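Give me the fold.
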Amino acid sequence: MVDPRPRLGRRRTGRPPRRGGLQAGRRRAVTHPYLSLTPDDQEAMLATIGVESVAELFRDVPAHVRYDRELAIDPPLTEQELTRHLEDLASRNVDTSAELSFLGAGIYDHYVPAVVDTVLQRGELLTAYTPYQPEMSQGILQAIFEYQTVVCELTGMDISNASGYDGTTVAADACYIAKHATGRSKVVVTEATNPQVRQVVQTYAPGFGLDVVEVPQRNGTTDPDELRSAATDAACVIFQQPNFFGCLEPAHDLAAAANDAEAVAVAHIDPISLGILEAPGNYGCGIAIGEGQAAGNYQSFAGPHYGILAARSEFTRRMPGRIVGETVDAAGERGYVLTLQTREQHIRREKATSNITTNQTLLALGGLVYLSWLGPQGLREVGETCMSLAQHARERLTDAGLELVFPERTTFKEFAVRVGRNAHDVVRTARERHGVNPGYALGRDYPGFDDALLVAVTERRTPHDIERLVAALTE
């Protein structure tokens, strides 16, 4: 990072510098409670435009398409009333400070250290826009470069972009990379991949000219032979490790099956798991994608977060979004620039690699701070803690008489358990009577799993918390 305390030149006076801000002026009444717009302001703007009234602005709109009566909405509220109304609406939401949560399914309640917020609240980072002028943006450019470096180290890949929107859209981007790299139009996705990821791929597929084939899960994981058969003539194969059920896939065999078919192996990863699981670049994957939220971001009611996308160097020119590079300036000093930005507003549309027009720099920076704060050993310890607590929860629930959906599978921080009745009803009862959200109802996405819950256990849970979960599910 650039020096946070640059040397200042000596001032000629001992008086402190005057604070910036609006200059004092003649006070005028504000007639609108949310916009500083007075009747005088409105008249001045109309005069500048050259019209007599606001109504005259719409003179070219045919009368028959105009709305000629008042909107049927409640009367306006004062600022105080509106604040109270919004507080009442917000109070209907419940977060993990008010409810014990074992809900995961892609968004997790991991601890975010205070240093993350401290760094993110720095003005030069909090309000930084796209660093188009490198001479004015060295700090944010270096932050993005360091983020890319950390992602490459984490995934075992050669190149990373500056981040994507989330863990779903980067999957669609990976499909696009693979299509252009292979000249093929079939995409294979495992059923054990996050349903939202699969849905986004399905949504993008028609526009990309892709056909999507899903390989069913078999007892919680994917059969490599079945995947190998489906991968014939495919552009890429997407699988999740750990998968949506929390089970560890035979990742080496799945990647080998994709490579045997000359398809690009794409691993959808959880960054926290890479403290203890092998990096996808080490077992033959060409692209690694993932949802970054678990590393340094709050749950935030499911967004916004940041997506991870890294790849082997052969895909560099096909990478979506932005890539920051390191260079040397005219004075021989190290500097950073936007090396690649292959977005459709920068180059010809048909040559663009993405129509997603930005990245999540601030949230990705949160991931950088988090991973830097933990370091390799700290990340390993977080992963081991999650895995141990999840195993303890599995054992306590089975001791209490509940049945695991996939008892023979090794899991990371999530596992599926049958609760003996409709899982949605179980969630509702556990929340109302025990203040516990016991997990995600799998029947929402998987037929035949109406009585199954997906339970997530992070390092924030304790053995006492697990006992509360057991009590809520065995009432």
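The CA atoms of residues 41 and 341 lie 41 Å apart.
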